[in-house]
Specification:
20% strand; 34% helix; alpha/beta; Arginase, Chain A; 302 residues; two-stranded antiparallel sheet; eight-stranded parallel beta sheet; globular
Length: 302
């Protein structure tokens, strides 16, 4: 007799005979990092840390999985000749993971995983790209046209997503950007940016953001680069930037997004690098757990 049960995210038992509601995808991608290294170990360390995260969710009033079927996929793996080939391989991995209709929740790996995920969603074709809102929680604008001579870098990924035709970009927590990126933010009417400095100086800005997020309509992809958070709670992320967001504000963003009017169609949590004390990967696992709770809340009663 074959045992179809495996243990995945949160240490939960998963029956792979059941149709998944959520596909957790491990993408240990690390090719264009520009400062710290170690994102290739991010997904597996997050899965390991998640076994110590409490399963009780206050937004649900219940323990995860709370009726959801979660499938923690085997990690993406590829050896190819070029960066483009790796991105194409990630796109295929994501496409296969969501082809049965599961909600994609990606663990990275560098932030470059976002572009192939958006392309996979475009290929699925459930909605026009111009209807998609990208909510980017990030210390960096990621709007350069190239970084270190590379157009498909983790520092250009959001610019490339705009090239794919997404309709709107909301940036939260940005505090490190170039003059080129500043001009893009000022002149592209698809973009609205809330700077970390303004958020930290004025609590009313937090309320403005959460109110705005609650009223988004249509499909949304949530992209959380954990360097958006203050480095005190993600000390090992590849490019830590002082003056980051508070953990509870990021959780509120997640909860307001899933409890509002939007249809959240996917999410990624990226730039995870494990540290020896387990703080960075545990923080990442807690954020992923909150996204799972939000997805369950959004889809209750369906």
């Amino acid at each position: 007799m074959v045992d179809n049960d495996v243990f995945g995210f949160l240490g939960l038992r998963e029956d792979w005979n059941l149709h998944p509601d959520v596909a957790i995808m491990q993408i240990p991608f690390e090719m264009t990092v520009s400062y710290g290294t170690g994102t290739s170990e991010g997904p597996s360390s997050t899965i390991d840390a998640s076994s110590q995260v409490e399963t009780y969710s206050t937004i649900l009033g219940d323990d995860l999985p709370s009726g959801m079927v979660i499938r923690t996929l085997d990690p993406w793996s590829y050896e190819g000749p070029s960066l483009r080939a790796h991105l194409d391989s990630i796109e295929s991995y994501v496409f296969e993971g969501i082809s049965e209709g599961a909600f994609p929740l990606l663990l990275g790996g560098e932030h470059g995983i976002l572009l192939p995920a958006i392309r996979a969603m475009k290929e699925i074709g459930n909605f026009p790209m111009e209807n998609l809102t990208l909510v980017q929680v990030d210390a960096h604008a990621d709007l350069r046209d190239e970084l270190n001579g590379e157009k498909y870098s983790h520092g250009t990924v959001v610019r490339r997503c705009l090239d794919e035709g997404i309709g709107r970009l909301l940036q939260i927590g940005v505090r490190a950007f170039s003059k080129e990126e500043c001009l893009v933010m000022e002149n592209d009417d698809r973009i609205r940016s809330w700077m970390a400095k303004d958020i930290r100086k004025n609590s009313a800005v937090e309320l403005e953001i959460t109110d705005f997020i609650s009223n988004i309509q249509g499909p949304v992809w949530l992209s959380i680069d954990i360097d958006a958070l203050d480095p005190s709670i993600v000390p090992a992320t590849g490019t830590p930037v002082p003056g980051g967001l508070d953990y509870w504000f990021v959780i509120e963003i997640i909860e307001k997004l899933f409890s509002g009017n939007a249809n959240v169609v996917g999410a990624d949590v990226s730039e995870i690098v494990p540290d020896e004390h387990g703080v960075t990967q545990f923080t990442a696992a807690s954020i992923v757990s909150s996204i799972l709770s939000g997805f369950c809340f959004q889809n209750r009663g369906e």
